[in-house]
Each structure stands twice: as C-alpha cells, then as structure tokens.
Amino acid sequence: MTTAGAGYVRAVSIWRPVVAVLLAVLVLSGCGDSSERPVRDRVERLREDARALRERAEERVDRVRDDVQGLEEDARRIGRDLEARVRRAFEDLERAVPRADGRTAPPRGAGEEDGIDAFLTGVLGRVDRYWSRTFAAADLPEPRVGYRWLAEGETVPTGCGSPADDTSAFYCPGDDTIYVGRRIADGVFRGVLRGFPGEAAEGRAIGDFGVAYIVAHEYAHNLQAELGVLDSRRRGASARPFELQADCLAGAWGASAYRAGELQEGDVEEALSTALAVGDFEVGSQEHHGTPEERRDAWLVGFETGEPRRCSVYLEA
C-alpha cells in the first residue's frame, strides 16, 4: 500500500467513530421529536378543552345573572304593586273615617264576662266598631277577628305554632285570633306589671288606656292581615315596620275615641307610657319591634293626625 493509501485508511479510521456518533445523535434527535409531538398535541388539546369549558361556564354565569336580575325586578314590581294597593286602601280608609261613638259591637267571642275580661271585650268592641264602619264606608269587607282572654295559669295552642298563656298579648294570623292573658292585662291596668324592655326609657305600662293601646295594636295586626300587608313580610325581614304601623293605626283609633269624648284625663299619657314600655333595643334582631321612642312616636302620628293613610309611611321606609 502506498503512503497516500495508508494515509487515506488512517483518515477513514479516525473519522469513522465521529461519523458514528453524529449518526447516533441524529437518530436520537429524530426519536425525541417523534416522542414529544404527541405530548405537545395532548397539551394543546387540553388547553382547547379548558378554553371551551371556561367559555361555557361564562355563558352559564351570564344566564344565571340574567335570571337573578329578572327575579329581582319581579320582586321589586310585586313590592311596588303591593305598596300601591296598601296605600290606596289606607287612603280609602282616611276618606271614610267615621266619628266613633260609645256603643259597642263585640266581634266573635264567647261567654258571660266580668272584671278584666269584660273590660277587654268592651275595648275590643269599640275598636272593632270603629274599623268596621271605616271599612264599610270605604267599600271594603268588614274586618273579622276572633279573641281569647286567657285565665291565670291557662295555656292554649294557637295556629301560629307557639302556645298562648296568661302573659300573652299577640295576634295570630294562623287562626285569626287575638290572644291576651288576664294576668298581663290586669297587671297593666293596675300599673303593677314590671319587666318591660322600655322601662329603661322611663316607660311604664299602666292604666286602662294602656290596656286599650295593647288591644288596639293587636287588632291593627288583624287589619294588616286582611289588607294583605303581612304578605309583604319576607322570611327573615324585620318586624319593626309592621309593628310601628300597628302602633300608628292604634293611635288613629285613639284619635276617634278622643273626638267622641270617650277619653279621660291621663288616658293619652297612659298610652304613651305603655308604648315606651313595650319598645325594645334589640335593633339587630328581625323581631325588633322598634325602640321605645319609635313606638311612642308612631302612636302619636296616628293620634295627632287621625289619618290611617299616614300609617302607610312605615312600610315605605
């Protein structure tokens, strides 16, 4: 072999490993591309799926938002319609307010009565007569309500879930009945009952007209039920506007009794003091009935104006 030939062989021998390495690298590179491509494709498909899911979720959120807005608008419309209906009813009542007289026409009840029972029935009869004549003059159906005066130690079931006893004073729309315990009525009548939350505001439940205020207030809740006002109280809503309106309506009846010459000296003060006494300070509770001052002032709005329509303001707030 010539020298040149020997050099060629040596050159080939030297480069052969290099070429082999390069070929191996190229082969491996090719294998890497082919194995990574399916992974990239899968990642891309996952991204596309995620985008599609996000778009569908956004569309669903938009539909739910539209549905909620529609429901809120329906609720506002129903509230406006109910408010207008209640306002018209009270305006009709105002145009038809009669002068009260001393005669009574007791609503549904039972039995011969004496003492505090007879007094309660007499007051309820005067309140009932005033509102019955007022409703009739406004072409509204005559209000109807039952009543139950509970003896000391007596407890009876009601249509509102909780029982009534001798310390009760409430109207139950479930059975359309006013419940008043003789113990609480007699205690207020004689001015000896203590423990009312508003006593901290110098309130004291006292006197015959203090009892009359309580009866007229509970009767006003019956009026709210018959006029559909109580239907507007949503679950979890505060009782305060409905209680203050009932105080105002009780004051409107008080004004009619005053115009008829039925009140005696000190009666107005007894009603105001009792309204202060039954006020409370639980402003964060849905059962908050109004502060002592709010309850007193609500009764005064009804009494000083003698206009039932003015009492609709408490549901507009």
From TrEMBL:
Keyword annotations: Coiled coil, Membrane, Transmembrane, Transmembrane helix
Pfam families found in the cross-reference section: Zn_peptidase
Membrane topology: Single-pass membrane protein
Coiled-coil ranges per UniProt: 40-74
GO cellular component terms listed in the entry, alphabetical order: membrane
Location within or outside the cell: Membrane
Major localization listed first in the record, in broad terms: membrane
Cited PANTHER family: INNER MEMBRANE PROTEIN, PUTATIVE MEMBRANE PROTEIN YPFJ
Name of this chain's protein: Unannotated protein
Native source organism of the sequence: freshwater metagenome
Taxonomic path: unclassified sequences, metagenomes, ecological metagenomes
